[in-house]
Records
---
Amino acid sequence: MVKTAATSPQPGPQLVLGLETSCDETAAAVVALEGGRARVLASVVASQIEAHAPYGGVVPEIAARAHVEALDRVIATALDEAGKSFADLTGVAATAGPGLIGGVMVGLVTGKAVALARGLPLVAVNHLEGHALSPRLEADVPFPYLLLLVSGGHCQLLCVEGLGRARRLGSTIDDAVGEAFDKTAKLLGLGYPGGPAVERAARRGDPTRFDLPRPLKGRPGCDFSFAGLKTAVAREVELLRRAGGAPTAADVADLCAGFQAAVADVLVDRTGRAMAHMGADGRRFVVAGGVAANAMLRARLKTLCDARGFDFHAPALKYCGDNAAMIALVGAERLAAGSCDGLDAPARPRWPLDASAALAAPTHVVGRKGAKA
Ligand code: KG4
Ligand code: ZN
């Protein structure tokens, strides 16, 4: 096995090819970084949603095979759209975890092959750090900042202190918030992925009709819990069935609105508590990850920031869900700081952003994806 990077990083402007294959999006992007300013030259995302939709969720084997089939074409399209060739690049960055191991391996091995063939430095990127840095693709968001990371596999509050440095303040003790959206959508027959479908249905609904719980709201600490909320929705559906058959479209809309309002209440409560951990130099807040696309959640968190004197930042919608621009950005920032990885960098199905906190807390993880977070 080759033990070292083909090339060391060069200081100065960076032009990085990023690869993302950790879940159900095959993505490649070209990002330039000069004088601390990022510019996305191309960001291509090939979604596998249609391949997984019949199964109501992501099937790992289907995902890995689909990444193999799509990645070369997606890379070629990204380079073409950017008007660049492999010869123009200063480095290649690939997601090395956490995620579905088959998919992660496809992207990482492809990144290594490009690095070796072209004599480029490789950066093995933590997918969560990609989400964490995503607002820096388009705005100047200096460290440190408070991060609420809300996606299909994760729900965490972190103080992002610098590149590769994050301190965890809280995380879910059961389901991730996106997972709760997806499971609730499935329960209500809204299909996959659930987040956007729940948000659409909620627009027509009455959030006060059903009395749904706000798990851990008002409790000490900054952890989250969503399993009870999902179960409460299931119980309401069961009661509706017993009373007269399948829930109507109006019932579904009211349940979605109630669920979304409960999630927002919990996220605002927990984020408000985490703000107390930020010093005077860190009064910036970032919400990132797929669930950050939710307009109602963004609005509620913005209101909280205004009330507490925090600057509010959220990535553009196209950079909330999985994409390779955020991976290329982490790569470019690391290369600019003079750091890269060996060609023996491992694919890691689990890879917490804050390793020390992950060992300590939460102690009572039971969710399917909880330990990953
Ligand atoms: O970050 P992401 O693309 O993948 C992971 O790293 O997990 O997040 C995907 C998650 C899914 O659970 C999806 O249902 C949720 O983000 N999501 C949303 C919305 N759009 C996507 N949840 C709530 N509202 C949305 N508009
Ligand atoms: Zn993600």
---
Amino acid sequence: MKFVSWGDTANLAVRDNDGVLRDLSKSGRPATLQALIEAGPEALAKVRRLDLKSLPCLDASAKLTAPLPKPRRNIFCVGKNYREHAREFGTSGFDGGAVGGDEIPDAPIIFSKATTSVIGPGDAIPSANDPFNSVDYEGELAIVIGTGGRAIAPEAALGHVFGYTIVNDVTSRDAQKKHQQWLLGKGIDGFCPMGPALVTADEMPDLSVVRLTTIVNGEQRQNALLADLIFDVPTLIATISRYITLSPGDIIATGTPAGVGLGFKPPKFLKPGDRVAVRIDPIGTLENPVS
Ligand code: MG
């Protein structure tokens, strides 16, 4: 199923077979995506059994939000998880931890983005929040955890995935370098566009054939298959849950492929008036202007 969240209280809507968004918020089912995930697999099964066409259409004027606009805790993120991007970043001069510059990490690099960084589809990325004018985009597939757990085995990991969405891991490159740890440079208010929808795990194709593209002002900058991930979805879930108990609604952004702004000489950083669109089918296109 494909869910979107909308309005000030992030009400839930679902897409029917004809592509029409139906408002679930008055159906007696969990009113938000976070509540639906926390209610467990049977709650999702009940939504599947609903006659969606009997539900009201979502008003065309409804403002979509991030699928999970107020995550219960920081968004887990993965650094340097595509080979070409690891080289691009390591040799850019912005990677404070680089040694030779072209190293492929031998274990996942995990950091997080603050919950206050989340904005929705169409919301403006507030570039002035980066004091260094070094705002960069990173299109990424994001995992949303369903059933939580600790020390999840890789073979069991996909059973813990509720669904997938898109995240733009917007970054202040100079803050990322200045503070070495990436929390400040990547956790800036408004620097985590998310959406436009969540697709449940059963409706995503095999991830190895799924493509991610990022378009800035009509110019394609990123174009990669998710098969190019160094550490795949099961490995990421197993790695994080070895240390930290995962909970329903946790979000894991899986890393970005080559083609970010710092990879160009000179870097192509974002500026007010730009538009960034990250596309992953069948989730859709996450498009945001820069203010
Ligand atoms: Mg990233």
---
Amino acid sequence: VTSPKNVAVLGATGSIGRAGLEVIAAHPDRFRAWAVVAQSRGTEIASLARACGALHVGLADEVAHDALAREWRGPGKLHGGTDAICALVAHPEVDVVLVGVAGAAGLAPTLAAARAGKRIALANKESMVMAGPIVRAICRATGAELIPVDSEHSAIFQALQCGRRADVKKVILTASGGALKAKTQAELEHVTPADALKHPTWSMGAKITIDSASLINKALEVVEARWLFDLEPTAIDVVVHPQSIVHSMVEFQDGAVIAQMSRPDMKLPIQYAFSHPERLGGLDVGFDLAAYRRLDFEAPDLARFPGLGLGFEAIRAGGTMGAVLNAANEVAVARFLAGALRFPRIAAGVEKTMARHRTVRDPDLPQVLDADAWAREEVLRCLA
Ligand code: MG
């Protein structure tokens, strides 16, 4: 009998974190919510902590932490600030770190988990987009395991178990097409944040839902795949698949294509990242192929959704360009959500920022963070 694995759930109040806590609750003999951490939602993290009995509770935002600390009576020890969260992640009792944080904020805890040699269930694509080679080098040195949770990358990770790495020809990422798939170029000029937030198959946070609508989410996933699986830029393809049943595919040299299929439910890739190489039951994710009647596939439309091309541009340029793509997009999306930007200007602003960037090859972490900071300012000039 082995004791349950201690899981630190980061981004616990978000959709990935909540799904992770459901997986843990379904397997009390296998997993324990050792720590739950959120950015700033004090009331929500307190009630989640009570429900799952976490020993440690964290808020990355120090102001939010101080507010909660005034009324904190436990159970669980309260931690505040990014440094304290990184120390928590690296604690010797932690076995698995679920990084369900959105955006560039996921980089610091991912690096902390990598340095401490943990199993990292990585839902934060931005840390790989910004600093993939750095994260991988640390994992190689410490023995940390990087298991993707992003559904496409989990699918590729699973399909890769079917053959030798040397025999992989390419990977094919599927894209739902997002909420605006059917819009014409003219209609895209007038979509509102509410239009773009209606995702057809996945229920996710606002930022990633806008990224799905612009296909920039897929652009980020192209960069993520490049670094997670050490693929040549020419060995990555994207196909639009509106039903989100085939989560991605790997094509081997002999032409065999291995696809991973399941109902779109993030609990599956999260649980697999926790249990790999084992596969556990406990998920009520019935699969009835006949009920879907048909699965559609089509080439992405780069004229209407130029954001996708930016991912391929970023992996061709390499170095700091991924960080620039990500940072410029975070700022542009925030402007769009605030009603200050037309939808097509998101991709246009990111593209212009990337064109103005002087790529640093093989950057170290400070150079990545410099590129991130530069892009956040430059994109505002490009959008002005
Ligand atoms: Mg995804």
